């Protein structure tokens, strides 16, 4: 069941609903005073380049523009470090804590401690199932998966009964579950009616890119005629493309991704990657910063445009859900125009011709 239960009658923009007091008692930040001091814990630097190349700078810019005190740290994929950073931030007196969890257990521990100390909590990008965060800011992640599935279908046009492999995200990341819900809602029908043949399918602990490459090497050895690969993000897609290159199959076997990272966009431009999904980190960071500052000031009206079900608690979480965009060769320019990456980063000498051919200015 889709986790999105109710979407406010928003026209795709963030609607402001007077949802009354925050979900639980003193956890709206008001117990800790009105001067905003926002703590943000990012998960790692390895699952995706996005956290430090896109999200960190976007959040920093958003907080600076608001003139508020903030502290943005990265747990480097280490759960103990994640907890230590949270403890330090709480001791320093943050009145809102925004996290991207590494897994549910470590996320719950931090969210629980924050609540006990009267600090408002936001799940940023990933919902911590069972965590009781006050708010969730992300994209419609089932939609992300649907775009990936539709993108692969597009790139497999003309192929007869292609065998489709799936390289999924981390089993400890609720987003990976939602992405898979999305792309399997597209691919499942095609497996069932015989248009596609379901090939090997594997999750990837911690989104580890090298693990994705090793797993795909085994997949290809066992199923040499794989026709397409649904890969859940750009970092892992790079690893899969490297394996395909060893077999001179890159560009012939379409591969999907997500995050519109520089390597991912370059692979889309040179035809090694079929598509990626752009989740505008500037918009996500702005929505997160707006919500965090409102909460720190103890403002009860929240800019939520959806309610997302936490399938562990069964509760609805007040959420801000943004809209993802499928990126193929012809609209890579959209990511550059949004300011998430620069033309100089993408259109290096090796990609200059592809950039020019696809209207990147
Ligand atoms: C997900 C995130 C994606 C993906 C992955 C790797 O939770 O929503 O953007 O890149 O993590 O970090």
Task: List how many beta strands DSSP finds.
Answer: 13
Enumerate how many helices there are, as a single number. Answer: 12
Q: What fold name stands as the CATH topology of the largest domain?
A: Rossmann fold
Considering the protein shown, what is the CATH homologous superfamily of the largest domain? Response regulator
What gross morphology would you assign?
globular
Radius of gyration: 20 Å
Low-confidence stretches: 1-5, 7-31
CATH architecture descriptor of the largest domain:
3-Layer(aba) Sandwich
Number of domains: 2
Helix percent band: 40-55%
Strand order of the largest sheet: 1-11-12-6-5-4-2-3
End-to-end C-alpha gap? 42 Å
Q: How confident overall, as mean pLDDT?
A: 91
Small-molecule components bound = beta-D-galactopyranose
- Based on secondary structure, the structural category is alpha/beta
Largest sheet: 8 strands, mixed
CATH C-level name of the largest domain: Alpha Beta
Beta-strand percentage range: 15-25%
């Amino acid at each position: 069941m889709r986790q999105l239960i109710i979407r406010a009658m928003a026209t795709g923009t963030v609607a402001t609903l007077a949802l009354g007091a925050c979900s639980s008692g003193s956890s709206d930040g008001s117990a800790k005073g009105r001067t905003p001091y926002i703590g943000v814990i990012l998960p790692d630097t390895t699952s995706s380049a996005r956290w430090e190349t896109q999200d960190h700078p976007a959040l920093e810019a958003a907080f600076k523009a608001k003139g508020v005190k903030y502290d943005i740290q990265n747990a480097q994929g280490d759960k103990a470090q994640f907890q230590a950073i949270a403890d330090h931030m709480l001791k320093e007196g943050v009145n809102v804590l925004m996290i991207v969890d590494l897994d549910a257990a470590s996320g719950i521990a931090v969210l629980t401690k924050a609540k006990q100390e009267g600090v408002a909590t936001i799940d940023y990008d990933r919902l911590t199932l069972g965590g009781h965060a006050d708010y969730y800011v992300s994209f419609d992640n089932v939609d992300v998966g649907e775009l990936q599935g539709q993108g692969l279908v597009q790139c497999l046009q003309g192929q007869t009964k292609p065998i489709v492999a799936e390289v999924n995200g981390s089993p400890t990341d609720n987003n990976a579950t939602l992405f898979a819900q999305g792309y399997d809602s597209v691919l499942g029908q095609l497996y069932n009616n015989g248009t596609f043949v379901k090939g090997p399918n594997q999750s990837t602990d911690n989104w580890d890119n090298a693990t994705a490459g090793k797993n795909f090497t085994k997949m290809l050895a066992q199923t040499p005629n794989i026709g397409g690969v649904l890969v859940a993000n750009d970092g892992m897609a790079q690893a899969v493309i490297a394996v395909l290159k060893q077999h001179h199959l890159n560009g012939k076997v379409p591969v999907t991704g997500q995050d519109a990272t520089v390597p991912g966009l370059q692979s889309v431009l040179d035809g090694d990657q079929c598509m990626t999904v752009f989740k505008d980190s500037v918009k996500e960071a702005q929505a997160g910063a707006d919500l965090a500052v409102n909460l720190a000031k103890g403002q009860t009206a929240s800019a939520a445009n959806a309610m997302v079900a936490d399938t562990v608690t069964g509760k609805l979480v007040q959420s801000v859900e943004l809209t993802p965009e499928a990126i193929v060769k012809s609209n890579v320019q959209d990511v550059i125009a949004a300011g998430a990456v620069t033309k100089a980063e993408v259109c290096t000498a090796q990609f200059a011709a592809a950039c020019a051919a696809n209207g990147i200015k």
